[in-house]
From TrEMBL:
Name of this protein: Ribokinase
GN (gene name): rbsK
Functional summary from the UniProt entry: Catalyzes the phosphorylation of ribose at O-5 in a reaction requiring ATP and magnesium. The resulting D-ribose-5-phosphate can then be used either for sythesis of nucleotides, histidine, and tryptophan, or as a component of the pentose phosphate pathway.
Pathway connected to this protein: Carbohydrate metabolism; D-ribose degradation; D-ribose 5-phosphate from beta-D-ribopyranose: step 2/2
Cofactors that this protein relies on: Mg(2+)
Keywords assigned by UniProt, alphabetized: ATP-binding, Carbohydrate metabolism, Cytoplasm, Kinase, Magnesium, Metal-binding, Nucleotide-binding, Potassium, Transferase
Cofactor note: Requires a divalent cation, most likely magnesium in vivo, as an electrophilic catalyst to aid phosphoryl group transfer. It is the chelate of the metal and the nucleotide that is the actual substrate.
Reactions listed under catalytic activity: D-ribose + ATP = D-ribose 5-phosphate + ADP + H(+)
Positions bound to ATP: N179, T205, E206, G207, A208, D209, G210, G238, D239
UniProt key word Hydrolase: no
Entry EC no(s): 2.7.1.15
Amino acid sequence: MTVWCLGSINLDRFYRVPHIPAPGETLAARELTTGIGGKGANMSVAAARAGARVALIGAVGADGAWARDRLAAWGVDTRFVATAAGPTGHAIIAVADDGENTIIIHPGANHRLEAGPLQAAFAEARPGEWCLIQNETVLQAEGARRARAAGLRVAYAAAPFTAEAAVEMAPLADLLILNRVEMDQLQAATGRGPDAQGVATVVVTEGADGATGYDAAHPGGLHVAAVPVEAVDTTGAGDTFTGYLLAGLERGMGLGAAMGWAAKAGALMVTRHGTADVIPNFSEIDANFGA
């Protein structure tokens, strides 16, 4: 079984700063590091390190061939990552001493993806597999329709969030994943709570408060507590949670068990600096928190 991820690939530039800059403020960064990120890449690496077979559908520029090669070395099938005109997407990330961050994203090649890789990927997909989609790329609705036509289940991580995109994607999704702020915005836009969005399963992440899942068996919500750790960098924690959640569901875990496993992965992730490069593998989860 394969998790098919339609998503972004970014070159991440991390700047260590004493605090998140205020409007109009200039700060001197103490450190600069470069790594691989983007929600598609992060989620794909997380699912792969959780033990799933993962194929990423996306695009890089000519300057991003090294990123595609590194993703392949990490166990992600990159045969459906195209080379597009223009630069690879990139993110400028300021990380403060308290672990909080602020991020500016330039989409680059992520917004130049064409339908060919989708068609080629789903020609190999098997009914019952998962397709994971997020908002840093293009062709989300088309990808979801193609996935459903191929018999796949669709998971939609609604970030970066807009209510318009979430409303369009909800009828095409079997699983909706978003954080509490995003859920509040979606509820304000639709007048409906997480149990009434027309999606079979909704998972709302709540940072240090854990996560809550809603499905037919838990219409009032199934809450999973967060694992207490000392955070140094929250970048990529939500993507790590999502990748592990999909890997858990793919291997047949129930919703609560998959959410609990994902919460452990997200907790370990926030104790590290970086994005895809430092996403933990399943043996590290077991070593730190138990199976």
